[in-house]
Amino acid sequence: MPRIPFHYVDLRTFCYETEDDKRVESALRTFLPEDFAVSRTESEGHHGDRIVVLSARVENADDVRHVLRRLASLPEFETLLSELDDRVTDNTELFLRLDKQAAFGGTVRRGDGITLRAKVEAYPASKEAAVENAREALERAATLDADPE
Length: 149
Hints:
RNA-binding protein; PAB1135-like; Ribosomal_uL5_dom_sf
């Protein structure tokens, strides 16, 4: 298994008209390395209201390690590990929803507002192999170093 068995991690959140863009971006940045680029796309809701989609794709191994270390601080981390079979798809993607309000305060919690999607490396490309690779990487997440592979 590769040291970091993820091709990438996507993080995405919506900023609604009633929310402050800078605060929502700050919440997303709770999971990102310092000075990481965040993409902004403006859209329109069903009733004509402005919605800004903020997203980031983390591909560099050191940056993925940073995201994994943040996930390791989840209070319900052991529950997450026990749910991996339900959270990894047949397409070897790991999905998780994170609490946007808590993230604004710098706290990592599961909840609503931020979507994490991670493409897990698995050879052969099977759900079972992806679950095992994700489990091993997440279990080591708290102690991952920032050394290049």
